[in-house]
Amino acid sequence: MILDVTLGIILCFALLFGISCMAKLIGVKRQLQDMTDALNDIEAGNGNRRILATGNELTVDISYKINEIVYHYEEQFSKLRVADETNRQFMTSLSHDVRTPLTTLIGYLDAVHRGVVTGQEREDYLEIARRRAYDLKGYIDVLFDWFKLNSSEFSLYIQRVELAELTRDILKDWIPIFEENHLVYEIEIPERPLYTKVDLDGYARIVNNLLQNVIAHSQATQIKIEMTQKEKEFEISITDNGIGIEKADLLHIFERLYKCDKGRSGKGSGLGLSIVRQMVEKMNGRITARSEPDKYTIFTIFFSSAN
Amino acid sequence: MSDIIIETKNLTKQYGEQKSVANLNIHVKKGRIYGLLGRNGAGKTTTMKMLLNLTQPTSGEVVIFGKNIQGNEKKILPRIGSLIEAPGFYPNLTGTENLSIFARLRGVSKRDAISSALEVVGLPYGDKKLFSQYSLGMKQRLAIALAIMHDPELLILDEPINGLDPIGIAEVRSFIRELCDARGKTILISSHILSEIALLVDDIGIIDHGVLLEEKSLAELEEKNSKYVHFIVSDMAQAARIIEQNFGTKNYTVEDDHSLRLYDVSLPVTALNRAFIENGLEVAEAHTCEDTLEDYFKRVTGGEGIA
């Protein structure tokens, strides 16, 4: 009798257990079907597909794991897609930026060649053409820098350098250019040696690019180059009193191909400041820009001190 | 996989005599942000509701991920995140509790889905504040968190910036852009504010009185928006030289061997024409393009304008 009751209870439990197992199994089967659907979609190239699961399902751990893996692969793909898109824009903008100055250059040379102009005017045309050719060369140098900087071969030799004297050396070559462009200049560099770790060429390239930027775009009449030592770092700032940069533009000026001038007058490559920032960052420094339209623009580079 | 994520075919919704949406054919492409632009009552929300099968179309069909939404709701809807009017949150629960209810109901893609969704919209995780105490902006942020919590491939957002302050608007704009650019999500948003749409989207559909007036990429529209004089002349090099020499501007770009865009629209086109002809060039075309986006929308909407 007691045996029968016990047997009955055990049977009931077994039945319940069986039913709940069945239910779980059906649930898992459904989830597996969903997962297979999602995986087929992912296999077909849809990296944004996710497998949705809740905390009490048996498949939850494996679902989240698959999602995580797909997410990371998709992240890599996305980066490649973005790079691809940038390159495409780059090529389009490049062909435009080269075509305009080159066409004008040909215009002047053709005019000389066909004898449209003579005497002094002919000389003037040749001079304009010569300058245009140099502008184009400058543009192509920038391009080359940019490609090099973004290729895997690029390397810097970062060493301990005395920056005050080095900066004075670089600026020396700029003084005649300032005068030629009617820029009143002011240079403040401490007399004592200031040591930091940079790549020699790279540092020169940064300063040159920033100064070139002032001359090409700011329409300033005054420029000030100042070097100061803070607690653990140096600041090199370049201030001009030119047209300044609008707030909305200021956020983007270090991005490649960004040009403040929406008219796209063909002036500049839109790469100069992007190169500057990449260089500064590769040397473990940082760069900031502040400006107020029609008042001033200040570019400041920071490097840590190595005294 | 098809590149069109959402396609509607002659989608129509009729309330009594009035057609709220009439023969709408929109095409939302993969990995792009599509902006549905129209005034209040133009039919934007009704369209989105039909896309999500929240309301049945009178005629026509909705195809999402290559499948008709009718009959495939269970497969399609989990892959979409949406924000249509105010979601039904429980006022007596906190934001985190509300989201965890939805997470249990719908499933999510990873363990920390709730906290990361809250982080994206800038709401604190595990905060004690009840939903009923939320400001309008916080409610909107929570609704956006709900839409993105399961990491969907497609987002359908109806006026997502409603109730947000200017900083909130900028934040939402930048993360929507980020979702699209960095993660390859497809996004459909609606708005009645032209300037807002112009800052964010890749493609625009203009809807008025339930009818789709135009479907174009923003790039195509911006092309119409810039001011320039377009010239087609026989000798581009000479034309470029003449513009520089006789009119003193470098604000132009050479498109190809025969066409040029002059961005300085203040120059008299007749004088330019004359100068070209006097120099032996043939001018096949010269016309001024100056149409602002606002003007353009006024024209397509029949003079009423958008915003």
TrEMBL record, chain A:
PROSITE patterns: HIS_KIN. It is found in: Membrane. Its main location: membrane. GO terms for molecular function: phosphoprotein phosphatase activity; phosphorelay sensor kinase activity. InterPro entries: BphY/WalK/GraS-like (IPR050351), HATPase_C_sf (IPR036890), HATPase_dom (IPR003594), His_kinase_dom (IPR005467), HisK_dim/P_dom (IPR003661), HisK_dim/P_sf (IPR036097), Sig_transdc_His_kin-like_C (IPR004358). It comes from the Bacteria. Residues 93-307 form the Histidine kinase domain. Gene3D superfamilies: 1.10.287.130, Histidine kinase-like ATPase, C-terminal domain. The chain crosses the membrane at residues 6-26. It catalyses: ATP + protein L-histidine = ADP + protein N-phospho-L-histidine. Keywords: Kinase, Membrane, Phosphoprotein, Transferase, Transmembrane, Transmembrane helix, Two-component regulatory system. GO terms for biological process: cellular response to phosphate starvation. This is histidine kinase. It comes from Anaerovirgula multivorans.
From TrEMBL, chain B:
GO terms for molecular function: ATP binding; ATP hydrolysis activity. SMART domains: AAA. PROSITE patterns: ABC_TRANSPORTER_1, ABC_TRANSPORTER_2. It comes from the Bacteria. The keyword DNA damage does not apply. Residues 6-234 form the ABC transporter domain. Keywords: ATP-binding, Nucleotide-binding, Transport. Belongs to the ABC transporter superfamily. This is Bacitracin transport system ATP-binding protein. It comes from Anaerovirgula multivorans.
